[in-house]
Amino acid sequence: MSPTINRSLAVVTGASTGIGLELAKEFARNGFDLVVIAENNEILSAAEQIRALGANVRAIQKDLASFEGVEDVCSQISEGGRPIDALALNAGVGAGGDFVRETTLEKDLNVIDLNVRSTVHMAKRLLPEMVRRGSGRVLFTSSIAATMPGTLNSVYNASKAFVQSFAQAIRKELENTGVTVTALMPGPTDTEFFRRADMEDTKVGQSEKDDPAQVAHEGYEALMAGKDHVIAGSFKNTVQATVAHVLPDTVLANMHEKQGQRETKSH
After folding, report:
1. Domains in the chain, start-ordered, CATH in brackets?
2. Which is nearest to 60 in space by CA: 79, 223, 52, 214?
């Protein structure tokens, strides 16, 4: 990808659909060129959508759940020779169901590898250059799921609790370096998440969801403002996150179980 004069560069993971794609569009509309990354070939058509907004875009199709995948992506970004002005670590996946009796070890470990391991790995590789340069913005896609025990989605919620804590800790460590860190905390959003997590037939999967474009817009605005976090989407997300700070974990676990239960079909 050849440099475009006077345009900054943003890197967005999980950018083929949903919040990631809408984040990439936000960057494009605001004068950024893009490197967009996802494991599926939808990233190629997503790149075309982003280019239509006037951005110079490089699409990388790679599985970030693997160590080698992250290393390859970071090498390709570095070889491009352009400094990263904004980094949105958005790639993530869930695995809905009872941990012992329904989800597989493979799916649970994939959640950890993508949501946690790749996030740490990419941050470790790409943030040092931002700090050396003394400028940059980093957005971690967390979730309001980070605020409560995730009954029937246990590994996912735990992974997002990790991301939330990780983001806020790094933000403090990078204070006064010129690099800001923001955590984006959406609630249920109309994306591919529920299909991929096998949660389409759950109560939360069938509920009304937030618009990913609106969530991305709020995330982008918070990132540009240098905020520590933003609870994006409908007001009920703010209420849920607030309640999570005052109710005991046992009550929150019960509440989350009801959301994760599968809806029975009447005949």
Report:
1. 8-260 (3.40.50.720)
2. 79
Cα angle vertex 182, ends 71, 119, to 5°? 20
The DSSP letter of residue 39 is S
Instruction: At 239, give phi and psi (nearest 5°).
Output: -60, -45
Full-prediction pTM beyond 0.85? yes
Spatial distance between the Cα atoms of 205 and 193, rounded to a whole number of angstroms:
9
Q: Which run of H or E residues covers position 219?
A: helix 212-225
- What CA–CA distance (Å, rounded) separates 171 from 225? 14
Residue 36: beta bridge partners? 12, 59
Compute mean pLDDT per 10 residues along the chain, 267 residues long, and list them. Answer: 73 97 98 97 97 97 97 95 97 95 97 98 98 98 93 96 98 97 92 79 77 95 97 80 76 75 57
Which alpha helices (DSSP H) does 54-202 contain, by range? 67-79, 105-111, 118-133, 154-173, 193-196
Per the structure block, which two tokens stand in for 163?
């991301």
Q: For residue 229, list its beta bridge partners.
A: 183
